[in-house]
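Following up on my earlier thread - several people asked me to post the actual chain instead of describing it. Fair enough. Here it is, all 154 residues.
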Amino acid sequence: MKVAIGQDSHRIDYENKEKKLLLGGVEFDEEYSLNGNSDADVVLHAVANAVSGITCKNIIGKIADDMCKQGSKDSKEYLKEALKYLEEKIIHVSISIECKVPKITPKIEEMRKNIARILNISENSVGITATTGEELTEFGKGNGIATIAIITVE
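Reply from S.P.:
Thanks for posting it. Predicted structure:
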């Protein structure tokens, strides 16, 4: 058994009304997005970073930046790239999202299904929680979104 943690955060861009807000590969109906070269999906980035914690092959960074420069801005592709190096079987992934906006709970089931599909695991092996953190951080105050992902493999 191995366990790894991944984290990512992005600032909310309230000015860009063109770009869609994606979390866990799911589109949210908000009039803002996240700053980033890619689609800035902090949930998939955190999961990719957790996978990299197992494989020791960092994807979010130079590899994802290079993919982005070549036109691939879809964070699902970065996670799929990270999975290419994973030899172990994923047992479970736990994801915690901190933000004031958007409301995460209405989309949790859709996010779980999407992430399970990408990871090729059961939906029951994907846990997602969300918190505002009592507005103690910039994320809880509505300035960004932070995600921590923990992955267990055997």
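The beta strands are 2-13, 21-23, 26-28, 33-34, 90-98, 126-131, 144-153. That should answer part of your original question.
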